[in-house]
Specification:
The protein is an alpha/beta fold. It contains 13 helices and 15 strands. It has helices spanning 22-36, 79-83, 100-111, 130-150, 159-169, 195-202, 222-235, 250-259, 277-281, 298-305, 336-348, 350-367, 370-385; strands at residues 8-12, 40-46, 58-61, 64-68, 71-75, 90-95, 117-121, 153-156, 176-178, 208-213, 239-244, 266-270, 286-289, 310-313, 328-331.
Length: 387
């Protein structure tokens, strides 16, 4: 197989930093590491040109942004016009956020044929409500099904997702590659922060901190974590739940907090810049991700890299990030009692919590380094080119 050592790669995705999100951060770090390896990535996304030199080489297309229960949607009327002027060795699109991935893949497979297309499938949405499920199932069958079957290679982050899309879309498994998300273990390092300094910085007075970081959307299962907190607080009354992130469920979650009488024990911090996430993680006594669906759970790997014990729903690719009893605790999704018991277990046994945290960082360094992830991704690009 012929390998190209200096690849021109188009990365197409609907949102990109400074926009906050797991996919956005992953692609930003992939682009950074591709450049360090000598490749030439180009990013095409929605929004307006950033003045910051860090994002000056990003193609940002004017777009109409729509929010729904399935997530955010960015539609750019000028995307095909922009694609006509792009010549690259390989195209890498990212879904499930709609429009950009489908439009880019369609252009290079149906209009300008010959350029190989790699698609990263970051998340499969279900349980979105009756109407949303009908719309999404229609879109999946009419758009995503042919898209999956026409792209050259598909990347997923876990074995669970490989099996899911093989079954759901009837795809040849040989077309699918498993490449986990990457973590910058130097940025997400416990050695960078003093806890007392960060408590003062964020105005946190409590001794015990339960932390959640993510979008405030139904799929993240935050209502179940809130319902678990009263029994935790009865046993550990100097505890605060910090919720970092924003989304269309924020008002609903704030109302639930009031209904449960948790105003003194829950703080909604909103979205924080990505460079503040390791700092806020340094405050955590335990990190909790109660998701209903999760393809990988990069925020879990980041918390593990910060040497924090984690508790998470046993869904999707999460068990491939968190080793039950060794680096964290897994509970069934929507399990309020399981969440409260697991949080209490971590808080009451600090020796066990510390042992899991130390083992967690070791596992991230071993499995999720960006150098390894980028090399594997370039290998898939070369496979697609030689397909």
């Amino acid at each position: 197989m012929k390998e190209l050592f200096e690849l021109k790669i188009l990365q197409s995705l609907p949102f990109y930093p400074p926009a906050v999100g797991g996919v956005e951060t992953q692609v930003f770090n992939l682009v950074k590491n591709l450049k360090e390896m000598g490749h030439l990535p180009i990013v095409m996304t929605s929004g307006h040109t950033e003045k910051s030199s860090e994002f000056s080489d990003v193609l940002r297309l004017p777009s109409i942004n729509i929010r729904g229960t399935w997530g955010n949607l960015a539609i750019s009327p000028t995307i095909f016009q922009k694609l006509k002027g792009i010549n690259v060795d390989v195209v890498h699109t990212h879904t499930p956020a709609r429009f950009f991935a489908e439009s880019t893949a369609f252009f290079f497979k149906a209009v300008r044929k010959g350029t190989p297309v790699v698609l990263s499938y970051h998340q499969h949405n279900d349980d979105l409500g009756l109407i949303s499920n009908v719309v999404m199932n229609f879109h999946n069958k009419m758009v995503m099904d042919p898209l999956f079957n026409h792209v050259d290679k598909i990347i997923v982050t876990s074995r669970a997702y490989k099996e899911l899309i093989e079954s759901y879309y009837k795809i040849d498994g040989n077309k699918i590659a498993i490449i986990p998300c990457g973590v910058d273990t130097e940025i997400f390092s416990p050695l960078r922060f003093r806890k007392e300094t960060q408590k003062e910085r964020f105005g946190i007075l409590n001794e015990t901190v339960v932390l959640f970081v993510g979008r405030l959307v139904e799929q993240k299962g935050l209502e179940y974590l809130l319902q678990a907190m009263p029994s935790v607080i009865r046993e550990f009354n100097d505890t605060v739940l910090l919720i970092v992130g924003d989304g269309n469920c924020r008002n609903e979650l704030e109302n639930l907090t009031k209904k449960l009488g948790l105003q003194k024990y829950v703080q909604f911090l909103g979205s924080l810049p990505s460079d503040q996430i390791p700092a806020i993680m340094s405050l955590a006594t335990v990190f909790v991700l109660p998701s209903l669906v999760e393809s990988f759970g990069i925020v879990l790997a980041e918390a593990l890299s910060m040497e924090k014990p984690v508790i998470a729903s046993k869904v999707g690719g999460v068990p491939e990030v968190v080793e039950e009893g060794k680096t964290g605790i897994l509970v069934s999704r929507m399990d309020v009692k399981g969440l409260s018991n697991s949080i209490a277990s971590v808080l009451s046994d600090q020796n066990r919590a510390k042992a899991m945290a130390i083992e967690g960082r070791k596992s991230v360094i071993r499995k999720f380094s960006w150098q390894s992830v980028t090399k594997k991704t370039v290998g898939i690009y070369n496979e697609a080119i030689n397909h």
